[in-house]
Structure formats: structure tokens, C-alpha cells
TrEMBL record:
Annotated signal peptide: none
Membrane topology per record: Multi-pass membrane protein
Taxonomic lineage: Eukaryota, Viridiplantae, Streptophyta, Embryophyta, Tracheophyta
Keyword annotations: Membrane, Sugar transport, Symport, Transmembrane, Transmembrane helix, Transport
Gene Ontology MF annotations: monosaccharide transmembrane transporter activity; symporter activity
Protein name: Major facilitator superfamily (MFS) profile domain-containing protein
């Protein structure tokens, strides 16, 4: 059964309008919300491989590292250390549900503002931490900030952007995440050179910078037309739509947004409604995509890159430098997806990226397996260590133009307005839950599964690539309120979508173009 060959042939509207400088600027400012998340992912792995930090807060790990004749796979295995990294994701998970209500009731920008403020407090606490408790409380506040930002920013971007550029502008969020990771890795490399041993404080406290950018940005951002209509400001919404589309002729799109908002007002309980059969495809995607995104194994590479490179035998500076290299690849490859996502589509990037990641993971597992065997004792020659670094770069590149950005883009663009906030909250919380679980168990898994860990993630990459092939229809260039048409035409999901759920069945203007 050749499932992936079904292409939507239903007519999809083209609302016209230009791409305005205003829209590009607002989307760039909003996307900075990704910086706080990225900085955090990048900074925690580097700090946890710094000896001065471990000595102060996690002396037992530091002892293990000193005993170098130990099993290479197990030298960082500490539940307290991983809970420092992963406590953030639990807080983000809980916060995303509160953020969902805020985003719906007060608008997208208020959520961004709250996120930035809470993150700022967390960064200050972390930089000034005197004991493990202060560290963990700071991390939890950072997590609340991340939960609010990851809930509101992708939705904001998808609503502001015109359909034909929605992919590229939405990926600004992922680009900001990768830039955040890279900056953090560079900061770690720099602060690790500080001989007095307070470098980790600077690394952690500098998280206040992206938080500040986000706070200032969200104060000046306009609200999205969808959000204004949802809160009853129709005239303001129409003016805003004319401004972001650069034309006065926005009637079609405006009426569709109002229709979508009327439909969404009938819905008192988005959480109960999202369980109805007609939202089944969106619900499955909002769970499966973030679940699979984490099981690519990417965060393991990103969080623990310095730790991982130390494990395969790079020295202190070399391991932080290798992490910087993977960070650079990550940013570069994200540009590839920004340029190609609205042209070649989402499915092509998902499938190509999946295949490339699978090959790299198998090869990394084989090389590490041959060098350290199952005992984990041994060392790696320079040549092999560099080979692993190169393979990991190819793997990171594949992720950065496929599952990385698309894991946030696709779920944020497929939900009808009435369940959009709830859907995005599910997406964020599933993402955070699995980031937490994998962050928490990774060092233990590495200790027990050894090089087989790479095959374990490889297996998941194979499954997720097949899942996309059979079950995800192409969504490029489809206006966000017209998405149901795409599901209706899909070989598997079509039966869940009732005919009346496809917008465009009513009277006003039918200026349409074939997709």
C-alpha cells in the first residue's frame, strides 16, 4: 500500500496581499522567544561538564571523573546531576497548561511577556546560587518561562505570517533556539578558561540577556488579528490585518478569521472537544510529533554534547569546542530548512532528514562499539574521535532541517482556532515530558546500553520516518483556517473529518486557486 503518495487536490484559497516589512519585523522579534529555550539547552550541558561547578554542587560526580580507569560509559551517571538539567522540563510541562489559558484569554503577547519575566528571575537565581536548592529553584523558574514562551511564540508566528511564508517565518523560532544553543556553547567555552573557577556563574547568569530581549520585544509587539477577534476587538483586528498584509483588501481573510472565531466561541471546553473524532488527526499529530522529536536522540547530543565528547576522549576544551562545532552546524542547517520548507514542503524534509539521521546513528554506534566494546574501557584514537564528531555533525544537520523546526511548525499550523491553544499546550507538554524523561535517564541508559543506545534511537528514527510517510499530509501554502480540507482529502484521516468542517462551504467570495 503506497500511502505517502496521496496529494491534496482540494481547492485552497489564496488571499493575496504582500509580504510586508512589518510582518517580517514582528516575526523576527517574536521568534527571539526561542533564544531563552536554546540558551538553556546549550548552557546546561557545558556547565555540567565544568569541574569547578561539579566540585561545588556535585562532588560525587567529580570524584568519579577523576578515576579515569573507570568505565567510560558510566562516569557521569548521577540522578542528582540529571535532575539539575531536567527539572526545567517538568516545570515547562506544568506551565504550558497555564500558558494555554493565558494565551487564549489575554492574547499571545501577554504570555510571551510573562515567560520573559519569570525566566529573568530564574537566571538571576542560578547565577547567584550558593547551594543545590537555589540551583534547582532557579531551574524551575526558567522552566516556567520556557513553558510560556514555547506555548505562545509558535502560535503567534503561525497567525501573523501569510500562508505562503508561514513555514519560513515560523522557523524563525527554531532558528532562535539554535542560535541560543550556539551562543551558550561559545559562552561556556569562554567561561571555562577562567582560572578562578566562577565561570559557570557567568554562563548561568547570562541567560538574563535573552530573557531581557524577549521582555522588551513582547512589550512592543502588536497582537495577532486572530487573537484580537477572539477577544472581541473586531475593528482593531481588521486594521491589524490590513497592516500586516500590506493591502486594504483583506475582506476574505478577515471573514474567514471571524467565522473561525465564531466557531471557536461555541466551544466552551477546548480540552474536552479536542478528544472528539473530528479532531483526531490533529490530536494524534500533536502527541506523535513531539514524542518522536525527542526520540530522535537529539537532545541527548545537544544537552550532553560536551559530556559525550569527553566520554569518547576529547579533553576539557576540546569537548566544549566540539560542542561549538555541532552548534554551528545546527544554525547553518536551520537556514537550509527556512529556504526550502515552503518550496519543497514539510514531508520531503521530514523523510530526507529521517533517512540521514538513521544512517549517522548506526555508524556512530558501530564506531563507538568497536572502540570501547561492551566493557567501556579503552580509548579512541584522534582519527576515530574526529570521525564520530563528523558523523554527529551530519546527524545534527539532518535534524536541524527536518524534525527540529518541523516538530514545532507542523503542530502549530494544523489546529483550527477553537482548539489551537489547547493543541499547542499538548504539543509543548508532550515535548517537555519526553525531554524530561530522556534527559533524566540518558546517562543511566548510556551506562547500561553502552553503544547500543545509538541503535535504540536509530530504531525510533526508522519508525517515525514511516509514520510521516503514511500519515502526514503536505501542509505547505495552505491558509491556516483552511487546513481541514487537507485532512479531508487524506486516505486515512478523511473519514474523521465531517463535510461541514471544511471551510469555504458558505457563501462569501470564492476567489480560490488550486493548490
Amino acid at each position: 500500500m503506497a500511502g505517502g503518495t496521496f496529494v491534496s487536490t482540494g481547492e485552497v484559497k489564496n488571499y493575496g496581499g504582500k509580504v510586508t516589512v512589518f510582518v517580517i519585523m514582528t516575526c523576527m522579534v517574536a521568534a527571539t522567544g526561542g533564544l531563552i529555550f536554546g540558551y538553556d539547552i546549550g548552557v546546561s550541558g557545558g556547565v555540567t561538564s565544568m569541574e569547578s561547578f561539579l566540585f561545588k554542587f556535585f562532588p560525587s560526580v567529580e570524584q568519579k571523573m577523576k578515576n579515569a580507569h573507570e568505565n567510560q560509559y558510566c562516569k557521569f551517571d548521577s540522578q542528582l546531576l540529571t535532575s539539575f538539567t531536567s527539572s526545567l522540563y517538568l516545570a515547562a510541562l506544568v506551565a504550558s497548561f497555564f500558558a494555554s489559558a493565558t494565551t487564549r484569554a489575554l492574547g499571545r503577547k501577554v504570555s510571551m511577556l510573562i515567560g520573559g519575566l519569570v525566566f529573568l528571575v530564574g537566571a538571576i537565581l542560578n547565577g547567584a546560587a550558593m547551594n543545590v536548592e537555589m540551583l534547582i529553584i532557579g531551574r524551575l523558574l526558567l522552566g516556567v518561562g520556557v513553558g510560556f514562551a514555547n506555548q505562545s511564540v509558535p502560535v503567534y508566528l503561525s497567525e501573523m505570517a501569510p500562508a505562503k511564508l508561514r513555514g519560513a517565518l515560523n522557523m524563525g523560532f527554531q532558528l532562535a533556539i539554535t542560535i541560543g544553543i550556539l551562543v551558550a556553547q561559545l559562552v561556556n567555552y569562554g567561561t571555562n578558561q577562567i582560572k578562578e573557577g566562577y565561570g559557570w556563574r557567568i554562563s548561568l547568569a547570562l541567560a538574563a540577556v535573552p530573557a531581557f530581549i524577549m521582555i522588551v520585544g513582547s512589550v512592543f509587539l502588536p497582537d495577532t488579528p486572530n487573537s484580537l477577534i477572539e477577544r472581541g476587538h473586531q475593528e482593531k483586528a481588521k486594521t491589524m490585518l490590513q497592516k500586516i498584509r500590506g493591502t486594504d483588501d483583506v475582506n476574505d481573510e478577515f471573514l474567514d478569521l471571524v467565522d473561525a472565531s465564531e466557531a471557536s466561541k461555541q466551544i466552551q471546553h477546548p480540552w474536552r472537544n479536542i478528544l472528539e473524532p473530528k479532531y483526531r488527526p490533529q490530536l494524534i499529530m500533536s502527541i506523535a510529533i513531539p514524542f518522536f522529536q525527542q526520540l530522535t536522540g537529539i537532545n541527548v547530543i545537544m544537552f550532553y554534547a560536551p559530556v559525550l565528547f569527553k566520554t569518547i576522549g576529547f579533553g576539557d576544551n576540546a569537548s566544549l569546542m566540539s560542542a561549538v562545532i555541532t552548534g554551528l552546524v545546527n544554525v547553518g542547517a536551520t537556514f537550509v530548512s527556512i529556504l526550502s520548507v515552503d518550496k519543497y514542503g514539510r514531508r520531503f524534509l521530514f523523510l530526507q532528514g529521517g533517512a540521514q539521521m538513521l544512517i549517522c546513528q548506526i555508524l556512530v554506534g558501530v564506531v563507538i562499539g568497536l572502540q570501547f566494546g561492551t566493557t567501556g574501557i579503552g580509548s579512541m584514537s584522534k582519527g576515530y574521535a574526529n570521525l564520530v564528531l563528523i558523523l554527529i555533525c551530519f546527524y545534527v544537520a539532518a535534524f536541524a532541517w527536518s524534525w527540529g523546526p518541523l516538530g514545532w511548525l507542523v503542530p502549530s499550523e494544523i489546529f483550527p482556532l477553537e482548539i489551537r491553544s489547547a493543541g499547542q499546550a499538548i504539543n509543548v507538554s508532550v515535548n517537555m515530558l519526553f525531554t524530561f524523561i530522556i534527559g533524566q535517564i540518558f546517562l543511566t541508559l548510556l551506562c547500561h546500553m553502552k553503544f547500543g543506545l545509538f541503535f535504540f534511537f536509530g530504531g525510533f528514527v526508522l519508525i517515525m520516518t514511516l509514520f510521516i510517510y503514511f500519515f502526514l499530509p503536505e501542509t505547505k501554502n495552505v491558509p491556516i483556517e483552511e487546513m481541514n480540507r487537507v485532512w479531508k482529502n487524506h486516505w486515512f484521516w478523511g473519514k474523521y473529518i465531517p463535510d461541514e468542517a471544511v471551510i469555504g462551504a458558505h457563501g462569501h467570495s470564492k476567489a480560490k486557486t488550486d493548490a
